[in-house]
Amino acid sequence: FLITVVGDGYGGLEHRASSSLICRRDELPRRGEQAVSERYRTLLALASHEYLHVWNVKRIKPQAFVPYDLSREAYTRLLWAFEGITSYYDTLALTRCGLITPQQYLEVLGQTMTRLLRGSGRLKQTVEESSFDAWIKFYRPDENTPNAVVSYYTKGALIALALDLLIRRDTRNHSLDDVMRALWVRYGKPQIGVPEDGVERTAQEVTGLDLRSFFDAALRSTDELPLESLLASVGVDLHLRPAESDQDKGGKPAKDASSVGRPGLGVRLADNGREAKLAHVLDGGAAQEAGLAAGDVIVAWDGLRATCGTLPGLVESYPVGAPVRVHVFRRDELMEFQIALRPAPLDTCFLTLRSDVDPDTRRRRERWLGR
Q1: What are the domain boundaries of the chain?
Q2: Contact yes or no for 104/351 (Cβ under 8 A)
Q3: Nearest in space to 62 (alpha carbons), one of 204, 187, 189
Q4: Most buried of 31, 116, 135, 342 (most Cβ within 10 A)?
Q5: Cα-to-chain-centroid distance, residue 147
Q6: pLDDT band at 272 (very low <50, low <70, confident <90, very high)
Q7: So what's the pLDDT on residue 172?
Q8: Which CATH architecture has domain 263-343?
C-alpha cells in the first residue's frame, strides 16, 4: 500500500500487486489509540477496498477489459458488480476480522443507504446504464448529476447486500461468498473475462435459485431495492429520518427529536467561501419549485443578508410552509423569488440490531457478519 498523506484528500487506485492511496492526515491512527476511530475506519475501508480489487477487477474482470487496452475507453454494464460488490465487502471484511463492531458496520451501511436516497438519479437511471455511461456521466459530473445519475459504487454495494441476504434467506448454506469463489474459479484463476451476463448466471447456478426477477428489478429498472424486508431476515431494522444539518451523513439516530418537521430548501451549497452559491438544486425541493437554479447566489433571505455560513440557520428559523422572499444573483442580474418551505425529506437512514430474534434469524446474522 503506497499511501500519500495530505491535508484534505481521498482516493485509491488498484494495481495487480499493489495499490496507491490518498488519505487525510487526521485519518491516520493516533499513538496510543486503542479503538478504531470513525476517521481511521475510513482509511481502513479504503485499503480493504483496493486490496479486494486484487481479485475483483485485476483478476476477475469484465470480458470488455480483456486484454486491457489503455489507449481507448472500455464499455461494460458490469461496473455495478466490480466496484459495487467490492464496496459491499470492504467494510464487511473489517467486521468479519474484528477490526470494527457490527454496530459500526451498520453505521457505515446506513450512510451508504443515505447517499443513495439523497439523489433522485436512482429513479431515472438504472445501475447497468450508470455502468455503461461511466465515461460520459459518472466521471464528468455537473450541476444536475444528483438528479440524473445513480452511482454504481453506492447502488452496486446495496445490490450486493440485497443479493447476499436474499441468498442466505432462501437457501440453507449459500451466500454471495460462494458466488465470488465460483467467479474466481471460472474466470479469475484461468484469466478469462466475465461475460456481461456472467455474474447473473454464476449466481443462479451456484445457489440453485431463479434470480431473474431480482436482477431485472435491481439492475435494469429504477425500482427501489427491498432492503427493509431483507435486512429484517437477519434481525436488522431500517429507520428513516430527516437530516439534522447539511453535515449529517446518516448512519446514526437523530441527536435532536425536533429535527422531525425541519424545513428544507432542497439545495446543496458550493464550497467556495462566503457566497451562498447553489451547486445543486434537487428535484422536488422548495428551491426548484420556486425557480432557483444551480449557479444562483442567494444574497438575501427575507431581507437579511445570506452567506454560505448563515443560510442554513436562516432556513431553519422559518416554519414549514412559510412564504419567504429571496433575492438572488443569477450571473449579473438581481432576481427575486418567493419560496414556500417544505419539510426536509426522510432521506437519512440508520440501522439497529434487534435482540428479540428467533434462533434461525440469529444464526443467519452471525454467519453474515462473521461474529
Answers
A1: 55-232, 263-343
A2: no
A3: 187
A4: 116
A5: 15
A6: confident
A7: 86
A8: Roll (2.30)
